[in-house]
Amino acid sequence: MIRVFNVSEEYADERIDKYLSEQLDDISRSYIQKLIKSNNVKVFDEICKANYKLVSGDVIFIDIPAPVELDVMPENIPLDIVYEDNDFIIINKPKQMVVHPAAGHYNNTLVNALMYHCKDNLSGINGVLRPGIVHRIDMDTTGLLVVCKNDLSHIFISEQLKCHSVKRCYHAIVNGVIKEDEGTIVAPIGRDPNNRLKMTIVKNGGKDATTHYRVIERFKNHTYIECELKTGRTHQIRVHMSSIKHPLLGDTVYGSAKCPYKLTGQTLHAKTLGFIHPTTKEEVFFDSELPDYFKHLLNVLPK
Q1: Separation CA 268–CA 209 (nearest Å)
Q2: In whole angstroms, what is the distance from residue 50 CA to residue 143 CA?
């Protein structure tokens, strides 16, 4: 697929790889550099280098190869199944489990496990790499996910996600003591232009994001909170809580690199999930226990 970009004056003197990574927010800068090296990027009819400085009026042609679909193999991995029927399955995902195959994680994902458990009974809307997957949570976030077994259920639940009617409540432990009992953060989220692996609050070009939080318990240096998502952006809770100077405990990406406790990633658990059932059209709610590491922290944090 060839994409064409006309360079305006505001981008004059900017490196072409940086410019393209800003315009193509679903492609990493390193991958763009790889495309440039393989002569997939031209300015007018000329092949260029990654450090080429743009000129106002330049026309860029970038040929993005079609993604190669991988063969995803079923794997006999134990699943913590909260609920299951003919339409969907609710999974309580553990830490360190990636939801679907991607670069660097082709095995031991939730999808590999689901393909073994559900056989061919997974929706195909999202392709062979993400069968049944309606929404995701981070590798080191634990908790509830809904996976659809047929396309009709997938479409029905996806529409609820789009209109923000799915109830999703997370429990988290954040650094610092939050003074107010509750609050709402409304701030758009987009890709961090300085670090493609991170998201950040942006003034322009981001997606609307709203997080409501409520204090459950205060400790000497930390706060145990519940967060309800009104939207579902990538890293939303992590970015929003960090923006008010209360990053999640253990989150080395949006918080401190140092943590006094031996943790694997952020202290965040998707505890409650509720939506309209695609067949019965009745409201259904699911709840999950906090993981052991989370309960242990609540017992040892100084008060």
Answers
A1: 18
A2: 41
CA geometry: angle 149, 151, 156, nearest 5 deg? 100
Q: Which two tokens stand for residue 80?
A: 């913590």
* Averaged confidence pLDDT in the chain: 92
pTM: 0.77
- How far is Cα of residue 62 from the mean position of the Cα atoms in its chain? 27
Q: What is the 3-state secondary structure (H, E, C) of 197-210?
A: CCEEECCCCCECCE
Write down the CATH superfamily of domain 67-163. Answer: Pseudouridine synthase (3.30.2350.10)
Vertex 293, ends 289 and 296: CA angle to 5°?
95
CATH topology for 166-303 is Pseudouridine synthase (3.30.2350)
Ranges of beta strands (E only) in the chain are: 2-6, 41-43, 46-47, 59-63, 81-84, 88-93, 142-148, 167-175, 182-186, 189-191, 199-201, 210-218, 222-229, 268-276, 283-287
| 67-163 and 166-303 in the same fold | yes
Q: Which residues are catalytic?
A: 138
One-letter identity of residue 123: S
Q: Where are the domains of the chain?
A: 2-63, 67-163, 166-303
Q: Which residue has the tokens 């322009």?
A: 204
Task: Note the pLDDT tens digit of each residue in 110-166.
Answer: 999 999 999 989 998 877 778 899 999 999 999 999 999 999 999 999 999 989 999
Q: How far apart are CA 93 and CA 268, in angstroms?
A: 12
Structure tokens that stand for 132 in this block = 């049944």
The topology under which CATH files domain 2-63 is 3.10.290
